[in-house]
Automatic annotation (TrEMBL):
Official protein name in the record: Transcription elongation factor GreB
Top-level taxon of the source organism: Bacteria
Classification of source organism: Bacteria, Pseudomonadati, Pseudomonadota, Gammaproteobacteria, Alteromonadales
Biological-process GO terms, alphabetical: regulation of DNA-templated transcription elongation
This protein's UniProt keywords: Elongation factor, Protein biosynthesis
Gene3D superfamilies to which the protein is assigned, alphabetical: Transcription elongation factor, GreA/GreB, C-terminal domain
Protein's organism: Shewanella xiamenensis
Length: 38
């Protein structure tokens, strides 16, 4: 239920993810996607 996780769903490198927070809008630019095995 993380708002940031929901905003990043289906995003690709080069996309902008925007999240509405109590303090206002926050945005992240996706410049890389990497999976690191635990």
């Amino acid at each position: 239920d993380s708002p940031m996780a929901r905003a990043l769903l289906k995003k690709e490198v080069g996309d902008l993810a925007v999240v509405n927070t109590p303090a206002g809008e926050a945005s992240w630019y996706v410049n890389a996607i990497e999976y690191v095995k635990p």
